[in-house]
Write a structure and sequence with these properties.
The protein is elongated and about 100 Å long. It is built from six helices and seven strands; from the N terminus they run ααββαβαβββαβα. Helices cover 35% and strands 19% of the residues. Strand 6, helix 5 and strand 7 form a beta-alpha-beta unit.
């Protein structure tokens, strides 16, 4: 009797499986959803505050250049004399230089400088830029308000050993007393306006 009951139960089970297959019913396991037991943490990012860029004025740039100068005075041991920065940077223009022909390159430099509200001078000699002969070397352009010296190095004139030695002396003079030496050459000739504009824009100076 027990065997008959077991056989009936098995038959009913297989009959139910066949009915599900014929009806297209697919039995799948669905796991029960469990909500998270912890509270999610929300991280708040603080806004990054970028301080405004403060650009130094022309006067501040000049003061910085003077402060960074290597010395404020030089001592001549042989002659027992002292030259201060103020004395070394005393300058003058020899009127005889105006009779000298002006090169085409220097004319382009002057024309480019004329486009800006800056005061400049040509063929300037400094008392501190003295040669062993007692003469003073000259620079092509001098912008006193900005402490800028501009030299145009022509190929035919600045290639001799004597002139190269003088150029080094001028560079050392400017470095010693906190002046900015700008050397222009043939590569700047056809873009002189752009070059001068780039130099003066660093000091916040715009065209007239």
């Amino acid at each position: 009797m027990a065997v008959m009951i077991a056989l009936c139960i098995i038959g009913v089970f297989y009959w139910a499986q066949d009915s599900n297959r014929s009806a297209g019913v697919k039995t799948t396991y669905k796991p029960q959803y469990k909500p998270p037991t912890h509270t999610p943490v929300v991280v708040k990012k603080e806004p990054v505050i970028v301080p405004p860029v403060v650009r130094p004025s022309v006067a501040e740039k000049i003061e910085t250049a003077i402060e960074n100068a290597k010395c404020v005075a030089t001592i001549d041991v042989e002659n027992n004399t002292i030259m201060t920065r103020e004395e070394a940077l005393m300058w003058y223009i020899d009127e005889r230089t105006y009779s000298n022909p002006v090169s085409a390159a220097e004319q382009k430099v002057a024309a480019a400088l004329d486009e800006f509200p800056v005061e400049y001078y040509r063929e300037v000699s400094f008392l501190g830029m003295e040669l062993p002969s007692g003469k003073h070397m000259r620079v092509d352009f001098w912008i006193p308000d900005l402490c800028i010296v501009i030299e145009y190095d022509g190929e035919g004139w600045h290639n001799t050993p004597e002139q190269l030695a003088r150029d080094r002396m001028k560079d050392e003079f400017c470095e010693r007393w906190g002046l900015t030496m700008i050397r222009l050459s043939k590569k700047h000739y056809y873009c002189m306006d752009y070059t001068i504009s780039g130099i003066l824009s660093k000091y916040g100076i715009k065209r007239k």
